[in-house]
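[#protein-structures] MJ: dropping Putative NBD/HSP70 family sugar kinase here for a structure pass
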Amino acid sequence: MDQAEKVRTPSSWVVVGLDNGGTCNNATVLDATGQFLVNNLVENPSRVLDGPESAVEALADAFTGILELTSTPLSLVRAVGLDTPGPASAHGVISSKGATNFNQVSWHGFDIRGALEARLGLPVIYNNDGNAAALYAHHRHFGADAPEHSSVSAIVGTGLGGGVVEAGQVVRGAAGMAGELGHVQIPLHGVLEEGQPVPQCNCGFAGDVESIASLTGIKNNLLPYWLTRFPDHPLNDEPIAKAAKALRSYGEKDDALALAVFGQQAKAVGKLFTIAANFTDPSAYFLGGGVVEAAPHFRQWFLNSVREATELRDEQKAVATFALVPDRDMAGARGAAVAALNMVAV
Ligand SMILES: [Zn+2]
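AK: finished. structure tokens for Putative NBD/HSP70 family sugar kinase:
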């Protein structure tokens, strides 16, 4: 595919989607007909470690860059969608305690949405990255029928992100903290082995979804236990952080230790989806994160394991879909753009 096929020019007004990450911003453009103008990652350094002023300038650079790349005149842009990692308020104010990506004191309580809006002179619609990815998964899957459906997305990464979509819209909650699926506590019966310590989460909870179904959960909880069950496994010779990252490649080779760990993660996500089934009874359950990039047989096994661990009633089984969140690297920017389009299209 050459560059001409990857980049289109707009035939209508547009919105821009900006995904802010720890090292890079990713940008996209979505036109009023629902077409994305770029098919690939368009990244620039996010400079979040340099503090808010530099980071807002870097977002403005990403905005200017994507308009240039797609030959989109500024006058066609109606709004900008922005997503960042949380925790942040529903309106894009970074937590007063800071966050993993925003640990400088100048970030604490910083209104990144308002600052970007002032910088660009355009309306900016904010979502956290989990909600943005959930929104993209929903709209990609259901297309024009998105408003008729609900879904829940679990994104297994460093933590466990995701979101809840109802009638095509992200459920935000009163304080902006709806859809913090990683910190939902789940029944551990049938998940943990006899004698396995109860997993602890960085949030202070024990036995929540993230304490099991995340890279952090593998490193802190699952792998230290499972290595004692496989004393001859080569990962016993690696530092735990390195071993945790290497585990997926073992899973792709059907290694017994790796399948035990990922099997526990799948059960934990299944318990979460069982709770969702009784809360909002969604049409679709989406699974995302690094596993989407794994070898096809492995990611299908993981998705099937999650489905088997999700206890649905027969009526729910007849209508519910399980699917992987597509376009992992672009899901944040694309979801942010979808949110902006939803906001200005009504
Ligand atoms: Zn937690």
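MJ: nice. Strands lie at 14-20, 24-31, 43-45, 77-84, 124-128, 151-156, 160-166, 169-170, 284-289, 321-324.
AK: one more thing. The chain has two domains: 4-122, 144-325.
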